[in-house]
Fold this protein.
Amino acid sequence: MNELVVISGKGGTGKTSVVASLAALADQPVLADCDVDAADLHLVLAPRVQRRADFLGGQRARIKPGHCTTCGKCEELCRFDAIFFDGPGNGHLPRTFRVDPTACEGCGVCAHFCAQGAIEFGPAVTGQWFISETRRGPMVHARLGVAQSNSGKLVHVVRSEARRIAKEQRRAVILVDGPPGIGCPVIASITGATLVLAMTEPTLSGEHDLERVLSLARHFRIPSAVCVNKWDLNPDLTRRIEQWASYAGANSVGRIPYDPAVTAAQIQGKAVVELDHCPAAQAMIQVWKNISQTFTHSAPGPAPPTSAP
């Protein structure tokens, strides 16, 4: 099977709009939203949840009021200021210590040094993941809790389920809406993918972010392609970005013009290719044609230059 992961150096470059359109153009794809910190593919595809499961993303401490003697050792040792002396009383003491679950980093020091064994330390539910049906095929997505960590592990769960569904249903394409940036969730999203599609815009910050994204893809030896969104806002910079991307070994698979129809489609909860034959829709159709051809012969290119020409 082929797995396409759409990423970018920052948010707001059009990843979700492109993935939604590619989902409408591909033949029976499996969809995965790996931007678990701020998922939004569901806003376009209106998934109907078929299965949901809790995600255990780490460990958290909890003080048992009935066992706490208020010695204060846990508060003294906590490096994250997550323990407070305003917990409930226990019949013998008017108040005890408590752990703030948002501030707790799960290091376990408090539980290890508590002489009374008053601190529980175990797995914590930090999010949920879902398997849904959409009008464009099955979709795996997730929601990480506020201020929770281990988003990379949750991304791994989402991708693993998407691959399982693709194998069981004999679907040849997985389309992944990836997170922005170059951090842990991005690495978890692209590792082992067939092709990375890097979205960018014709701005100086977009050019810089693209360099970082392509460098990451090359580090993991993943073939990459580039698409410039709103390219007609700065044609000269678009050409420079595409030239540098070519030196970096990334094929240009198309340009998407600025088009108000994209916003109109989002308001209606549709992909732009489902709306009409506007310029952006025609551009995305061409992008998908080029990607389909790239799937079969993608390979890393030469080492990129240190800066754009």
Q: What stands out?
A: The first strand starts at residue 2 and ends at 8.
